[in-house]
Design brief:
Helix content is about 25%, strand content about 25%. The chain is an alpha/beta fold. A seven-stranded parallel β-sheet has the order 1-4-5-6-7-8-10. It has a three-stranded mixed β-sheet with strand order 9-11-12. A two-stranded antiparallel sheet has the order 2-3.
């Protein structure tokens, strides 16, 4: 797996951004997250070794995980990114966005029904955002689509939007002031996925985690491992 951040910086966009790890990390370093700038890794996918081989190995590439790939400030740069994505057909580029309403304004002219090596994850943190974003997401020409419920801030009913979705991810918030994640919410989301035969992954617990009526406060380092211990990930049989 590789990480590619062609630019950095972002703006808080909705409720799920309140304790964003990017903003928190930038604040510790004295960096203004609202300043959107290209990085020195902009051309990373097509950088080559002396022998002509690509430095970035084939496989999954996490794209823009310190920003939002559909930010308006990046409109002038994104075309070159699509060129590199097209060139690196041996890689699968995954990006997440809370700005799915901008999608059709941001794709290249040859997008058609979608690039086979691009996976788009639409982030929804509560029912309000699910009802706002998922009807748009469902109608877009995308070959590989995921729904990301992280941080999950409320119960979310999205079963009617699961047609064509390959994966749903659930996870809690990591911050000492984080809003709680209820395990019942996670189990209900999983049940929706099972009924529709869509893969489900419980990615991480929340710092404040409620299970069977008992409140737990977890260390950030344990959030992912505790979610794995729940052993509730689901992969439908072929």
């Amino acid at each position: 797996m590789a990480m590619w951040n062609p630019w950095r910086g972002c703006h808080r966009h909705s409720e799920g951004c309140r304790f964003c790890y990017i903003h928190k990390g930038d604040a510790r370093r004295g960096v203004d997250t609202d300043d959107i700038v290209k990085t020195d890794r902009f051309y990373a996918p097509i950088a080559r070794k002396k022998n002509g081989e690509y430095k970035m190995k084939a496989g999954i590439v996490y794209l823009g995980f310190s920003t939002d790939f559909l930010l308006p400030e990046a409109d002038g740069w994104r075309g070159e990114c699509w060129d590199m994505i097209r060139e690196r057909s041996d890689c699968r580029f995954l990006f997440l966005t809370k700005r799915i309403d901008r999608f059709l304004d941001c794709v290249p002219s040859d997008w058609g029904s979608g690039y086979d090596n691009v996976i788009v994850g639409c982030t929804v943190e509560n029912q309000r955002r699910a009802e706002e974003r998922l009807p748009i997401f469902a109608d877009l020409p995308i070959r590989h689509r995921n729904i990301i419920c992280q941080p999950m801030l409320s119960p979310i009913h999205l079963e009617e939007y699961l047609d064509g979705v390959e994966l749903v991810v659930a996870g809690g918030e990591s911050d000492r002031n984080a809003r709680p994640l209820y395990y019942d919410w996670v189990l209900d989301l999983r049940a929706q996925c099972v009924r529709q035969r869509v893969a489900f992954e419980f990615r991480q617990c929340g710092t404040h985690f409620i299970k069977d009526g008992k409140a737990y406060t977890l260390q950030v380092r344990d959030l992912a491992s505790q979610a794995r211990k729940a052993n509730i990930n689901y992969a439908p049989l072929p």
